[in-house]
């Protein structure tokens, strides 16, 4: 084993920062087990009691300090770092239960047992930017964005193989999850940073924490660089190389080595993973030139042999939906089209649980599986904003119903309002808004409470073309950012193709699935440009042909009646 | 408010002022020229003098206080009962099926005709007038609340329900706020009705109050005093209406046109 590289860790620290493009410095945590050790360390001592995470934040900006028990101000870190013994109240879960953090005592107890607490008694610790550490630290903390975190985890796995599930409890982020856990398990760990540190230390929204035990550090850095070579685009690599040049570093990164780049696939064809088609009647549209969005295999909602009839006043029954089965995947954008009056809206309301099917089942594959715990969003063509609430009040109602505190609601709502350009209208009432703005408010009202599935029933009916285009653009952006499962019903084929991953064509009443079309257009899409691409035109024509056949059929049926 | 409508407002105010002054002036002149008999109709100057005396002697406050007390209690109890019954019957279908016809049938009785009965039941004191006021107010508020609850937008209810709202949350966040305009309409009518109830009750039998004063002054041919009382009632009505309008504009800011 080459021990030299373990001593030369400053160089690896630099390499990692450069490879990932880290904005913050890596922080090395060193524990001191005795007073003499502590006194020997020549770091400045923290002056006033500070929370542990605030100290770490300070060091990510380049400072170096040491601290002992009396300098740690937060009880969470005092416990996590073993400065205060764990009492009965904590280990029994009573404390967490009393704070209202977990639903019952059992749950609180199990969580309390999972929280990583330092078992060895320490006297103090020092925190330094990794590059300035004299001795190898015990643990290395990186506060980074999700991309960088992913790369770090992948780099670790490259060298060490799969890891245990990440120990992120949402509690005690920097102290327990990023310091104690990697030290104890000697494995990488990711933390989403607890709410306390998120707000008191004001980490940016996109920041989270990854932490490594020192023993895994060098191999992880090597893994990171290797996986960058095989998985990142040339564009990313170019900016990385530029960074390396500026820092005067030699990085072992080559262009054109990504497994999906054309050059690489010529040398060694890598089988591309594309979800198998679910139906036989797939559109014959070429997919070879475009990079189809890889579809997550997780099911979101399944429709199984659902039938529904409406009864008329004359006691006659009309079969609207006839034995339809359909699987929709997580994060998929599916559009249902069909001749008017074919039952597409009925199918949607069945899926959303607004009405019950006569036979068959709708199955949700959520976390709980129980529909009542399942968050659904529904945007209909009619305006259902509450006229007596301001726009702000309307958008936050879903959060309010869930008991989210006011300050938090405000943050969420402000962000969404900005996203769709409604900022400045917080205090307006719905009657003061234009049709398009109302629709936007309705869309973000649904997004605000973060539903698992959003149903849209011809949401843009009655809006002028320009507003429609803008809203479609908004929906595309929103889907891109929030990655929801969205099921849209429309009669507008252009809208259907522009927005979705999959278009489902229903027959005339009673509705059955006539065919399905995968939309092979790459994302992110541009509403205007996409309409002029060959794939779009081709697909549009094909669906249009099939649809008009159905429309013809349905009008014939009506004539016969 | 733009300039044009403001100018229009001022012009209208001015016109109203001119019309009213002209009417009062011709009354005064007519009385002085003995065209109008002051014995029956009095005259503005005499009314003003009497009104002044009425205030200065402090008598007005005793009577006004009693009448207002009766009307306010009547309005209060009538509104509470009206809203509660409206909400309960509006929400629970079998209760509505059972009680709505009964309440409607009782509504057919002219309530003022019941005043003597109430005096028989509750005596000559304030209670009988409060009860009469409350009954008048109750019907107005009840019907509008009931109607309001029934006309809640089902689409909004469905939308909020889908967001995961409980029955109570739907009631609090949708049903109640959407009823407020209806309830206000009921209360607006109720203010007038409560005063009416109090005054008529006093006519029937009382020992104080503006209604009693009117009755007493009429029988003793003090037309000036009758008119002073009517003037007082007019002013009270104006103040209450203004107050309600203000409340309305605060509560119903979310509606496009508040008339």
| Intertermini distance of chain B | 14 Å
Side by side, the strands of the main sheet of chain A go: 2-3-4-1-5-7-6
Q: Please tell me how large the radius of gyration of chain A is.
A: 28 Å
Task: Please compute the radius of gyration of chain B using only Cα atoms.
Answer: 23 Å
How far apart the termini of chain A lie comes to 86 Å
Number of domains of chain B: 2
Task: Indicate the CATH class of the largest domain in chain B.
Answer: Mainly Alpha
Biggest β-sheet of chain B: count, sense, barrel?
Answer: none
The proportion of strand residues of chain B reads under 5%
How many beta-strand runs of chain A? 16
Q: Could you spell the SSE succession of chain B in H and E letters?
A: HHHHHHHHHHH
Largest sheet of chain A: 7 strands, mixed
Give the DSSP E fraction of chain A (strand runs of 2 or more residues): 15-25%
Quaternary state of this entry equals heterodimer
Q: For this structure, what is the CATH homologous superfamily of the largest domain in chain B? A: MetI-like
Largest interface: A-B, 25 and 21 residues
What does this structure look like?
Chain A is an alpha/beta fold. Among the domains of chain A are: 4-82 and 117-231, no CATH class; 301-374 and 452-560, P-loop containing nucleotide triphosphate hydrolases (Rossmann fold), CATH 3.40.50. Chain A is 40% helix and 17% strand. In chain A, the strands form three sheets. Chain A has a seven-stranded mixed beta sheet with strand order 2-3-4-1-5-7-6. The longest helix of chain A has 27 residues, at 534-560. Chain A is elongated. The N and C termini of chain A lie far apart (86 Å). The model of chain A is unreliable at 1-5 and 263-296 (pLDDT under 50). With 259 residues, chain B is mostly helical. The model of chain B has no long low-confidence stretch (mean pLDDT 89). Chain B starts with a helix and ends in an 8-residue tail after the last helix. Chain B has two domains: 1-36; 47-251, MetI-like (MetI-like fold, Orthogonal Bundle), CATH 1.10.3720. Classes of the chains: A alpha/beta (561), B mainly alpha (259). The interface between A and B is medium-sized, with 25 and 21 residues.
């Amino acid at each position: 084993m080459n021990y030299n590289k373990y001593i030369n860790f400053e160089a690896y620290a630099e390499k990692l920062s450069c490879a990932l493009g880290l904005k913050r410095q890596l922080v090395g945590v060193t524990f001191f087990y005795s007073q003499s050790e502590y006194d020997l360390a020549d770091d400045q001592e923290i002056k006033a009691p500070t929370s542990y995470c605030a100290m770490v934040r300070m060091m990510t900006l380049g400072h170096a300090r040491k601290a002992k028990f009396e300098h740690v101000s937060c009880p969470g870190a005092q416990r996590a770092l073993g400065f205060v013994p764990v009492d009965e109240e904590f280990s029994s879960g009573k404390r967490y239960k009393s704070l209202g953090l977990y639903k019952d005592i059992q749950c609180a107890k199990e969580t309390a047992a999972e929280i990583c607490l330092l078992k060895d008694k320490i006297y103090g610790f020092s925190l330094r930017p990794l590059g300035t550490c004299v001795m190898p630290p015990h643990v290395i903390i990186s506060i980074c964005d999700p991309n960088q975190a992913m790369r770090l985890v992948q780099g670790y796995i490259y060298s060490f193989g799969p890891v245990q599930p990440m120990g992120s409890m949402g509690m005690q982020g920097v102290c327990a999850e990023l310091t104690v856990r990697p030290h104890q398990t000697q494995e990488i760990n990711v933390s989403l940073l607890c709410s306390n540190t998120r707000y008191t230390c004001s980490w940016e929204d996109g920041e989270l924490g990854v932490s490594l035990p020192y023993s895994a550090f060098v191999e992880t850095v090597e893994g990171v660089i290797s996986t960058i070579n095989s998985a990142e685009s040339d564009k990313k690599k170019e900016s990385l190389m530029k960074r390396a040049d500026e820092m005067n570093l030699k990085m072992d990164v080559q262009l054109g080595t990504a497994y999906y780049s054309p050059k690489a696939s010529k040398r060694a064809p890598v089988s591309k993973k594309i979800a198998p088609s679910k139906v036989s009647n797939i559109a014959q549209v070429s997919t070879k030139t475009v990079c189809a969005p890889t579809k997550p295999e997780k099911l979101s909602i399944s429709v199984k042999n659902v039938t529904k009839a409406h009864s008329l006043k004359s006691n006659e029954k009309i079969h609207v939906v006839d034995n339809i089965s359909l699987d929709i995947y997580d994060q998929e954008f599916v559009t249902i089209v069909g001749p008017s009056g074919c039952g597409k809206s009925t199918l949607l309301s069945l899926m959303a649980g607004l009405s019950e099917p006569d036979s068959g089942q709708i199955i949700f594959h959520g976390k709980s599986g129980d529909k009542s715990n399942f968050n659904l969003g529904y945007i209909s063509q009619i305006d259902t904003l509450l006229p007596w609430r301001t726009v702000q009040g309307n958008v936050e109602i879903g959060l309010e119903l869930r008991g989210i505190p006011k300050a938090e609601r405000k943050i969420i709502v402000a962000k969404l309002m900005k996203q769709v350009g409604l900022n400045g209208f917080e205090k307006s009432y719905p009657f003061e808004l234009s049709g398009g703005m109302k629709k936007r408010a309705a869309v973000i009202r649904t997004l605000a409470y973060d539903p698992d599935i959003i149903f849209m029933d011809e949401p843009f009916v009655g809006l002028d073309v320009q507003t429609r285009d803008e809203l479609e653009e908004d929906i595309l952006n929103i889907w891109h950012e929030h990655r929801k499962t969205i099921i849209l019903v429309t009669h507008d084929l252009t809208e259907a193709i522009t927005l979705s991953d999959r278009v489902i064509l229903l027959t005339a009443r009673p509705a059955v699935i006539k065919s399905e079309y995968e939309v092979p257009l790459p994302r992110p899409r541009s509403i205007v440009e996409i309409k002029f691409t060959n794939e779009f035109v081709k697909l549009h024509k094909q669906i249009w042909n099939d649809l008009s056949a159905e429309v013809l059929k349905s009008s014939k049926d009506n004539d016969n009646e | 408010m733009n300039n044009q409508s403001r100018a229009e407002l001022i012009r209208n105010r001015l016109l109203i002022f001119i019309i009213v002054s002209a009417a009062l002036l011709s009354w005064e002149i007519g009385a002085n020229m003995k065209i109008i008999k002051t014995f029956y109709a009095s005259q503005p100057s005499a009314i003003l003098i009497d009104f002044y005396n009425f205030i200065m002697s402090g008598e007005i406050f005793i009577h006004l206080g009693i009448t207002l007390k009766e009307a306010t209690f009547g309005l209060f109890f009538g509104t509470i009962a009206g809203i509660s019954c409206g909400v309960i019957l509006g929400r629970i279908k079998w209760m509505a099926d059972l009680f709505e016809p009964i309440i409607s049938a009782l509504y057919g009785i002219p309530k003022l005709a019941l005043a003597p009965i109430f005096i028989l039941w509750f005596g000559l004191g304030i209670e009988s007038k409060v009860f009469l006021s409350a009954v008048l107010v109750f019907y107005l508020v009840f019907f509008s609340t009931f109607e309001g609850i029934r006309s809640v937008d089902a689409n909004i209810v469905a939308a909020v329900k889908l967001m995961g709202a409980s029955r109570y949350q739907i009631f609090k966040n949708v049903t109640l706020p959407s009823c407020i305009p209806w309830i206000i309409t009921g209360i607006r009518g109720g203010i007038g009705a409560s005063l009416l109830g109090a005054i008529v009750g006093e006519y029937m039998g009382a020992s104080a109050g503006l209604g009693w004063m009117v009755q007493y002054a009429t029988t003793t041919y003090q037309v000036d005093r009758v008119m002073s009382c009517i003037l007082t009632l007019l002013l009270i009505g104006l103040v209450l209406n203004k107050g309600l309008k203000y409340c309305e504009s605060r509560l119903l800011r979310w509606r496009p046109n508040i008339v």
